[in-house]
UniProtKB/TrEMBL annotation:
GO terms for cellular component: plasma membrane. Component of the type II secretion system inner membrane complex required for the energy-dependent secretion of extracellular factors such as proteases and toxins from the periplasm. The chain crosses the membrane at residues 169-191, 211-238, 373-394. It is found in: Cell inner membrane; Cell membrane. Gene3D superfamilies: Type II secretion system (T2SS), domain F (1.20.81.30). Keywords: Cell inner membrane, Cell membrane, Membrane, Transmembrane, Transmembrane helix, Transport. This is General secretion pathway protein F. Its main location: membrane. It comes from Leptospirillum ferrooxidans (strain C2-3).
Length: 401
């Protein structure tokens, strides 16, 4: 069935573009009209030769869209609908943008006889190795709908953990940014106008007032230098983080509160990925290869890499991870228990759940410490500026009396 590119007006009155499969342009108009879209232009497109086939298109797909697609596909396949028809049904729901083009192309590949995982492999920037390997295992074992449900569960849990962490850090970050902007505004705009009355006085100004005048003058007179220095430090920090990543990752693991937070997050990612893959029938060696890609801390990534090599040589997973001084002993003990009892997948899942909970607790603790410290720091700076203005006024009033 050909694929058409359309441009039209949605029911809300907004201009919309996308792809739709139909037998003819007339049929495409009918399908669009059924969706409430008034077609302005319909052109044919060879989906098999679209730019998305290379997997290098610059479009991005939101995690929420990918999770919704996975859950819908699992539901449709679980209801006994063939893959091609399931993908067509998802397309008919009015998806828009880059992701629609990808799904349309995948549908054409599957319709042409290609496996679903083979069609998805062309878009490895969109579909992770976990996703593709789980799909492959599901197709080989005849449990594709189960694997899709597990992938969707994995995606939803990952997004939930991310939302919790970002939500906890949102307020402190906003507070810090607002505080910095407020102090800069007071120093560069407000204070010069207030303190200008003191510059003509012959009397010696109090030390806080002199400090405030000096800082305010320096910021106003050398604003471009400070801006350039700030940009330079940021760029230098980014470059340092790339070139000295291993050293920085090792330092971060040794910082109180921060180290345990990073370790818990990385172990939770590793354990949940391993659990999902092993439950899906992926081999231990292949699961370790994929799980290594989700670990971003270089020190812990090296621990997983060494464990993978040792497992290839016949060592147990728990014993291999125990050799790393950075991998938590509790996680190792849970993995070893799972290996001995034959319930490695379940114990890995419990390990992930435990460390995800610990991530939330650590973030909450750090937030509870950072917030009052930042409020106290900003309040102290504002108090200093207020006193710097009030002290000379107070001395002048005393002199008049």
């Amino acid at each position: 069935m050909p694929i058409f590119v359309y441009e039209g007006i949605s029911p809300s009155g907004k201009r919309s573009t996308g792809l739709i499969d139909a037998d003819s342009s007339r049929h495409a108009r009918q399908k669009l009209r059924a969706q409430g879209i008034t077609a302005l232009r319909i052109d044919t497109q060879d989906a098999g030769k679209s730019s998305t086939d290379t997997g290098t298109s610059s479009g991005r797909v939101k995690a929420k869209e990918l999770t919704a697609f996975t859950r819908q596909l699992a539901t449709l396949i679980g209801a006994g609908i063939p893959i091609v028809d399931s993908l067509a049904a998802i397309l008919d729901q009015g998806m828009e943008g880059h992701f629609q083009e990808i799904i349309a192309s995948v549908r054409e590949d599957v319709k042409g006889g290609r496996s679903l995982n083979g069609a998805l492999e062309k878009y490895q920037k969109i579909f992770s190795p976990i996703f593709i390997n789980m799909i492959r295992a599901g197709e080989e074992s005849g449990t594709l709908e189960i694997m899709l449900d597990r992938i969707a569960d994995f995606q939803e849990k990952s997004q939930e953990t991310r939302r919790k962490v970002l939500g906890s850090l949102f307020y402190p970050i906003i507070l810090m940014c607002v505080g910095i902007l407020m102090v800069l505004f007071l120093l560069t705009v407000v204070m010069p106008r207030i303190t200008s009355i003191f510059e003509g006085l012959k009397a010696t100004l109090p030390l806080p007032t002199r400090i405030l005048l000096a800082v305010s003058g320096t910021l106003r007179n050398h604003a471009l230098i400070f801006l350039g220095a700030t940009i330079f430090l940021i760029l230098a920090g980014i470059r340092l983080a790339k070139t000295q990543k291993r050293q920085l990752d090792e330092i971060l693991l040794k910082i109180p509160r921060v180290g345990p937070l990073i370790t818990s997050d990385q172990v939770a990612r590793f354990a949940r990925t391993m659990s999902v893959l092993l439950k899906g029938g992926v081999s231990l060696q292949r699961a370790l290869e994929i799980a290594e890609t989700v670990v971003t801390n270089q020190i812990l990534k090296e621990a997983v890499s060494r464990a993978r090599e040792l497992v290839r040589n016949g060592e147990s997973l728990g014993g291999s991870l125990r050799q790393s001084p950075y991998f938590p002993r509790l996680a190792v003990a849970m993995i070893q228990t799972g290996e001995r009892s034959g319930q490695l997948e379940e114990l890995l899942l419990k390990t992930a759940q435990g460390y995800e909970s610990e991530v939330g607790q650590i973030v909450a603790t750090i937030t509870s410490i950072v917030e009052p410290v930042m409020i106290l720091l900003i309040g102290s700076m504002v108090l200093f500026m207020v006193l710097s203005v009030l002290l000379p006024i107070f001395e002048m009033s005393q002199a008049v009396q």
